[in-house]
Each structure stands twice: as structure tokens, then as C-alpha cells.
Write a structure and sequence with these properties.
Elements lengths: L1 E2 L4 E2 L13 H54 L3
Antiparallel strand pairs: 1-2
Length: 79
């Protein structure tokens, strides 16, 4: 998982599809597996995102403002 200014990114591992061992075919099979996973889980991922936004939305805004203030102080440097 990684956290950005505006998003939380959760990374997982999909099982590799069975292929004939050809590098090009393997790459295409992996890309297809990823595409199918994204299509099949889109509604679930959107629901989770809405729940997180509802739960953390106002708090994240306050945190973002605080981090911007810290960055301004850092940019100004010591007097």
C-alpha cells in the first residue's frame, strides 16, 4: 500500500495465468488477466473508494492543509 496526497493505492498480486511459455504470449496473458480483474472488481473497488472518501474526506482535507503549511515553512528555510 502507498499513500499519495489524494489517494491510497493498494497493490496486490494476481495469480499468473497458465501459458505456453512464450514471452510474448505470457505478457499478453498477464495483461488480459489484469484487465479482466479490473473489469470484474470495478464496482467493488468503487464502493470501497466511496466508503473511504465518506469516512476520511473532511480529515484528509485538514491533513492536506496542514501539510501545505509545513511545506511553506520548509520552503522559507531558517531566517
Amino acid at each position: 500500500m502507498s499513500v499519495d496526497r489524494d489517494e491510497i493505492l493498494v497493490v496486490g498480486t494476481l495469480t499468473a495465468p497458465e501459458t505456453a511459455g512464450d514471452d510474448v504470449a505470457d505478457a499478453e496473458a498477464r495483461a488480459g488477466r489484469i484487465t479482466r480483474f479490473r473489469e470484474q472488481t470495478r464496482e467493488q473497488r468503487m464502493r470501497i473508494a466511496r466508503e473511504a472518501e465518506h469516512r476520511y474526506g473532511s480529515w484528509l482535507g485538514e491533513l492536506r492543509e496542514a501539510m501545505e503549511s509545513v511545506q511553506k515553512v520548509r520552503d522559507a528555510g531558517p531566517s
